[in-house]
Amino acid sequence: MKQIAREVRTLVMSIIAKREKAIQNGETTKDDLLGLLLESNMREKEQKGNSDSIQGMTTDEVIEECKTFYFTGQETTSVLLTWTLIVLSMHPEWQEKARDEVLQHFGGKKPNFDSLSRLKIVTMIIYEVLRLYPPAVMLTRCTYKIIQLGNLTIPPGVLLRLPILFIHHDPEIWGPDATEFKPTRFAEGISTATNNGQLAFFPFGWGPRICIGQNYALLEAKMALSMILQHFKFGLSENYQHAPYTIITLHPEYGAPVKFQTL
Ligand code: HEM
């Protein structure tokens, strides 16, 4: 672990050093998170007139921010797309519906932001994949004071686990077909799907610590899926074994061998 941590630090440090040099040379690098972070940090330090000022972020803090965004943002969206390809291979009729919608909106052109947010079928599919295969299978919380939860009184220091995966599969909420892939349950939006707004669908968490990257992740997934659908038909290889399992995020244990065929 320590070796990996050192490697990641060195990698991020070299990216930061390059960026800082570019900013000092007057090149604009503001169009991504690291650029924004470094520019605002440098400005802050300049204004305070003291590079040791506690107002700016330290290099270690910038590194930690980069690690948070990279590790929380990369793996989660990647497994979401992986499960989407698996599920659409298992349900070719939904693959066709999604492709029809994408071609109707974009034809062969690169999808744009406005139209991506208007994709209805693709959104229903992605929600249903997030329900069945939530990349984060549970949330963990620790009580810091006495908490009254219904008729339970929980003392401070208790670790609570909110099992997203189980709640997403509960037949009492979703009906007897809870384990089936049925994107139509999201046809009228999330609140209708969850029995009039019960808090039963929360792949991105909930409350003050809800995923900060939620909109970005959905946009990224829709963009990637649309571009795949525009160019390829896909199906599972005969080697595929369905075995969802968790190491931090929910993965297919033996990978996702998918065969692509150009359209
Ligand atoms: C499908 C993709 C994603 C899923 C399923 C997901 C899921 C989650 C969940 C469940 C939480 C809440 C954790 C908790 O309450 O304990 C969370 C928090 C967070 N996510 Fe995501 N996430 C995704 C994509 C992203 C992306 C793309 C980014 C950044 C670019 C990101 C950045 C974060 C950050 C920084 C937090 C912590 C927020 C806070 O504590 O205030 N996530 N995510």
UniProtKB/TrEMBL annotation:
PROSITE patterns: CYTOCHROME_P450. The keyword DNA-binding does not apply. Heme binds at C211. GO terms for biological process: lipid metabolic process. Keywords: Heme, Iron, Membrane, Metal-binding, Monooxygenase, Oxidoreductase, Transmembrane, Transmembrane helix. GO terms for molecular function: heme binding; iron ion binding; monooxygenase activity; oxidoreductase activity, acting on paired donors, with incorporation or reduction of molecular oxygen. Pfam families: p450. GO terms for cellular component: membrane. InterPro entries: Cyt_P450, Cyt_P450_CS, Cyt_P450_E_grp-I, Cyt_P450_sf, Cytochrome_P450_Monooxygen. Belongs to the cytochrome P450 family. PANTHER family: CYTOCHROME P450 72A11-RELATED (PTHR24282:SF255), CYTOCHROME P450 FAMILY MEMBER (PTHR24282). This is Cytochrome P450.
